[in-house]
Write a structure and sequence with these properties.
four-stranded mixed sheet, Aspartate Aminotransferase, domain 2, binds pyridoxal-5'-phosphate, disordered N terminus, alpha/beta, 2 domains, Aspartate Aminotransferase, domain 1, seven-stranded mixed sheet, 446 residues
Length: 446
């Protein structure tokens, strides 16, 4: 059925284009030559001018089961017609308990889930839980937070404070007090063209000892890192690095938080990065693939014991003074339950794992092409790092993005790095198509 909200073609008016302040977008550049998707199915988008575009990025790292899956669409329809909303505070509904139960069963060792509506909100929730946890444990001086350079943890004030992306921080004032940053681990001199985890760099985790020595462990609440940093260009942790962070946190009673907003739900060929790296953080933040990108939702898994620490005091007292009107929204929960069912039924995490070697070969087949200074991969993620045009950082990768889009492939760029993270339903012929087209575009770049 064609409705005004689902046009098969669309020519935006100037007024429509101008009214919308687009996020993380060069508004003027975009509006001079808009790129608009009007529909999507499985591995492809359809553009406003009627072309098919292969999705090389699962939207924004979120559509892991592919687009417009009927099971999810139906679950959302049914839910919104049955119970469109239920108050999130002091009330419940079936889906929120069922989804929490299914999630904790996916991750042994984590016994409770807190719901938010995005990765950013889940990050803020985790940071607040970490500080409050120490307080309820009688260690209220533990308030400092430690992030990492080139980390991305969304756009809340907590997230940009622990995040390590200069442009995302510099406009927004003094941010949170009491935050330090570990060095990032990206180093082409040592690790260029590594396959999977690079050999060099585990020692960079020892910087945590320096920060602890400076502030004293009794003042530090938590360390937050992405196990694989996505948004700053797919930075894969060196072998042993995450294990070392875990050891140092344990030694000093510091909570370790993994932000798995992109690695969660199969991206590395396991359910979560914690399983892939065999390192158990104290909290795990997820979003995106939780609902296959259909309805906004984020969540924080907490390790056994964290929730219990809050369950003191009088029974009528609210234990955690935090939450959102839409925490565990019924429609998001329905989408989440249907999404998890697809992951299970189709064995998509396993499928990702099985394709990862083929993917790796395809990624590294680009070695030697013009301007390519690094290729890296893990699971179904990859980065192609290009040499910047002198004086024009980002320009070369963005030109590649535009040419790929024109020729029918969606990629994502950050700086001069191309990031690839396709839906996990991808098949070998899509991988061939994706890298064949990329090779042609790279050969033609200035
Ligand atoms: C690691 C990580 N954390 C947090 C976020 C923020 O998620 P959202 O955009 O849903 O707020 C993102 C988004 O890309 C992310 O990659």
């Amino acid at each position: 059925m064609q409705t005004s909200s689902s046009p098969s073609t669309y020519n935006p008016t100037r007024a429509e284009l101008e009214a919308f302040w687009m996020p993380f977008t060069a508004n003027r550049q975009f509006k001079a030559n808009p790129r608009i998707f009007v529909s999507a199915k499985d591995m492809h988008f359809t553009t406003h001018d009627g072309r098919q575009v292969l999705d090389g990025t699962a939207g924004l790292w979120c559509v892991n089961a592919g687009h417009c899956r009927p099971q999810i669409v139906e679950a959302i329809h049914q839910q919104v017609a049955t119970l469109d909303y239920a108050p999130a505070f002091q009330m419940g509904h079936p889906g929120v308990f069922q989804l929490a139960d299914q999630l904790v069963k996916m991750l042994p060792g984590y016994d409770h889930v807190f719901f938010a509506n995005s990765g950013s909100e889940a990050v803020e929730s985790a940071l607040k839980i970490a500080i409050a946890y120490h307080r309820v444990c009688g260690q209220g001086t533990r308030q400092r937070l430690i992030g990492r350079e080139r980390g991305y943890h969304g756009v809340g004030f907590g997230g940009i404070s622990v995040g390590g992306i200069r442009p995302n921080r510099k406009f927004f004032g003094s941010l949170l007090n009491g935050v330090d940053h570990l060095p990032h681990t990206h180093n082409l001199e040592h690790n260029a063209f590594s396959r999977q985890q690079p050999e060099w760099g585990a020692h960079l985790a020892d910087e945590l000892e320096r920060i602890v020595a400076l502030h004293d462990a009794s003042n530090i609440a938590a360390v937050i890192v992405e196990p694989v940093a996505g948004s700053t260009g797919v930075l894969i942790p060196p072998k042993g690095y995450l294990q070392r962070l875990r050891q140092i946190c344990d030694k000093h009673g510091i909570l370790l938080i993994f932000d798995e907003v992109i690695t969660g739900f199969g991206r590395l060929g396991t359910g979560f990065a914690t399983e892939y790296f065999d390192v158990m953080p104290d909290m795990i933040i997820v979003a995106k693939g939780l609902t296959n990108g259909t309805v906004p939702m984020g969540a924080v898994f907490v390790r056994q014991g964290i929730y219990d620490a809050f369950m003191n005091g009088p029974e009528q007292a609210i234990e955690l003074l935090h939450g959102y009107t839409y925490s565990g929204h019924p429609v998001a929960c329905a989408a989440g339950l249907a999404t998890l069912e697809i992951y299970r039924q189709e064995g998509l995490f396993q499928h990702a794992q099985e394709l990862s070697t083929y993917w790796e070969e395809a990624v590294h087949s680009l070695k030697g092409l013009p301007h390519v200074i690094d290729l890296r991969n893990l699971g179904l993620v990859a980065a192609i790092e290009l040499e910047s045009i002198p004086g024009k950082p980002t320009a070369r990768a963005f030109e590649c993005f535009l040419r790929c889009y024109e020729r029918g492939l969606l990629i994502r760029t950050t700086g001069d790095i191309i990031a690839l993270s396709p839906p996990l339903i991808i098949e070998k012929q899509h991988i061939d198509e994706m890298f064949g087209l990329l090779a042609e575009v790279l050969k033609g770049l200035e």
